[in-house]
Amino acid sequence: MKTSYNNISRKDFIKSSALAMTGLTLLPGAMTASPFFDDQNIWAKGKLSLKNVRLETGFTYEDGEVISTKTDLFYIEVENGKITKITTNQPNAKAAIDAKGLLMLPAFKDMHIHLDKTFYGDKWQAVRKRTGGIKGMIELEQKMLPDMLKNSTFKAEKMIELLQSKGTSYARSHVNIEPTSKLQSLKNLQKALDNKKKGFGAELVAFPQHGVFYTDSAPYLKEAAKMDIDFIGGVDPFNVDGNIEKVVDFTVQLALDNKKGIDIHLHETGDSGLKTVEYLIKKVNENPVLKGKTYLSHCFILAKLEAAKQEEIAEKLAEAQIGIVSTIPFGRLVMPIPTLYKHHVTVLTGNDSIVDHWNTFGTGSVLEKANLMAQVYGYSTEFALSRSLKLATGNVLPLDDKGTQQWPKAGDQANFVLLNANCSAEAVSRISNVESLVHQGNVVF
Ligand SMILES: [Zn+2]
């Protein structure tokens, strides 16, 4: 069935959906200005139905090559935050949302961001010339943070709204834990996350931005590890703390003692970078409970290695089930993401900075990161573009590599976006507009 959804504006789409609404769960505040959403009773039922939803159903091949993606329209029901029913389309059903042929994809995940530390929502400020490397930046932060913390809950909420507008409803956020902020940055962020919890989920990394020992952060990390966080973080153990083993041992032990994962920022590109990767692999292999729960963020050293060494390290990372959270740098530094994929290393991405004293180029879109990856590595065919979507969704894809439908299934969390695109490949290539976001069955917009 051919649809003419391309001319639907977001406003028309929401308006027409609203008119057909029954039992819709809508976030208070999201659409309160709309005359269609002023009946409070419709929010409480926890049920949602959608018709004319486009889902991917398979690939079309020519001479063994995927040349297009097949789709069809479906009727979907959601209850208590989960997808409960997916059936053939019921165009005449009285559904809460008429998707009008829009494509449903898994909601996006930003897996590396600093929600606690941003200028977003505040006045514009460009990055200043960096002096004194990472230690110069630590000194700068020590001066800036007390002021930044004053309204960090408000700014985190604004940043969450930006991410949501780009289709993201889940993030892994690093949160500063150091003697300047102590636990205040964490507490302020937790408040923002609590205020936004119906439309946004997060996992947190206790991040010793100022070094574990370079500044006396260890006691605060120990305290944070007992709070509601998921990962123990870190940053450049050699460049900041001058001792790879001491820092990694501390981090691993703290993670083990508190049953947390690990996610360490590693920007070091020299010998110390490689040594850190190898030492972390060794420690995770010694403590297999950390397998699948340990990540290196950035890990720029991988871009500097010879091809054969990249293969060797990728194989070892895969074996230890250590993931790489990469921000898709371009220019002089090209990460070996194809090699990581080849060896089945988990690859995630995030915006990292939206606008702060480190970087001001974050758009908030991880779909744009998938697009950038596709451009950098030449993933331009229908098949390669469709696979690239996994960078935006935390590795969930509607079709497997053989074209068999694997998402959504009844029982899946109701976390999805509706986009103005025919298929994943088009969404990645065109960075298609996100028209609607649903998180745990709650309509964010
Ligand atoms: Zn970061």
TrEMBL record:
Any idea where the Amidohydrolase domain is? Answer: 222-445
Under the heading Pfam families, the entry gives: Amidohydro_3 (PF07969)
Among the GO molecular function terms of this UniProt record, one is:
hydrolase activity, acting on carbon-nitrogen (but not peptide) bonds, in cyclic amidines
User: Entry's SUPFAM superfamilies?
Assistant: Composite domain of metallo-dependent hydrolases, Metallo-dependent hydrolases
What InterPro entries does this protein's entry cite? Answer: Amidohydro_3 (IPR013108), Metal-dep_hydrolase_composite (IPR011059), Metal_Hydrolase (IPR032466), Metallo-hydrolase_Enzymes (IPR052349)
Q: Which NCBIfam families match?
A: PRK06846.1 (NF005312)
Its name, as the record gives it, is Deaminase
Q: What organism is recorded for this protein?
A: Chryseobacterium phosphatilyticum
